[in-house]
Design a protein that fits this description.
11 helices, alpha/beta, eight-stranded mixed beta sheet, Rossmann fold, 38% helix, 284 residues
Length: 284
Amino acid sequence: MEETWQHECIHTNGINLHYVTQGEGPLMLMLHGFPEFWYSWRKQIPEFAKDHKVVAIDLRGYNDSDKPADKEAYVMAEFVADVKGVIEELGYDRCVLVGHDWGGAIAWNFAYAYPNLVEKLIILNLPHPAKFAEGLRTPQQLLRSSYMFLFQLPIVPEVLIQLGDYKALESAFLGMAVNKAAFTQQDIDAYKDAFAKRGALTAALNYYRNIFKQGLTSQDWSVLDVPTLMIWGESDTALGKELTYGTEAYVRDFQIKYIPNCSHWVQQEQPQLVNQYIREFLSK
């Protein structure tokens, strides 16, 4: 599977971004979440490389991408500029944009900022920003998102996550997963190795440390014209299923596919179903 994957680097928006690519054709750009890297798309890359140029990037601060030291480098305006730069540097004028978790948040914001650059939008287990803002005003979602408040502290989260050979990362994947067999020890070790790179852990946490000053939870959202598919693992302990209700009020052409008995790590736990739903969406 990995024999035809290529590891490449692109310079855009003042930084170098590492990515894995496979295939030729229309661009499909994949954005991972926390605490991951391009590897979280390992079960999608070869499938969609059959008829797309698939590009799965390491977001800024992660794995082999540059890790600016300034905390203010980790704000939505920079993430959106990174994505725009990648599309343009690769020589494309539009893409199918796929995002999970933080990558989903970036994908939502990018689609609003540059709808002409997004042919279709695919979001996995990350609500529309307006719905997430609503959720954060409820006790149940505040409780689920309590880790975000811990991440606001300096140094302490870094220390806790590194304890016991990054035991917290293993717990995040295996503790949340319904199908724990979806993650091999090799997979867990890959995530640990990515986070152990100098500066990566603090960079990833800086996404959260800026979350309340980016307007993510306060701005007004219009109706998005980009055709959008949302795929949602129903057993997500970090983000409640109720955050998906009413999304159609914000997206003109919207469909959602729920996957029961599946956690937040939806594309890794149920890759065949996720790939099937994406295929059906793209064929329309």
